[in-house]
Design brief:
Elements lengths: L3 E4 H31 L7 H25 L1 E4 L15 E6 L5 E7 L10 E3 L3 H6 L7 E6 L2 E11 L2
Parallel strand pairs: 1-2, 4-5
Antiparallel strand pairs: 3-4, 3-7, 6-7
Helix pairs in contact: 1-2
Amino acid sequence: MKRNPMTLRGAELLRVELKKLRSEDRPNVIKAIAEARALGDLSENAEYHAAREQQGFIEGRIAEIEAKLSTAEIIDVATLSPGGKVVFGATVEIESEDDGKRTTYAIVGEDEADIRAGRIAYNSPIARALIGKSEGDVVEVAAPGGTRSYEIVSIRYS
């Protein structure tokens, strides 16, 4: 079975979503289906078909989250002792060698990645280049526009 690395925060967000799906969304859609059934002929009942489709989405998402959590390898960054190296869960500030622009990324699991929020997947090209490196190291990242160089300015484990 393939383990799925995930931060403590990422696992908690999935648990919160799962609880909401089970305790709010699922009962609401079941109620909507019952109300639509009460209206009579189901073959031309748009409310019924929409509610059934919504139920399918909810059940699918519940199954997806349960599967992710069952294979999750939850990593608490605060308990790691990486010795100043970039590891899964670290927050890394890098500076572009080209234009001096600084960017901060947290290296997270695939399901937690959100580039706009500064969270990149551990298997992304940038994260793969950073993992194992230390402050002051320069890394080369193959980007669509060519190879880019970045200096690691700081590493935090929080």
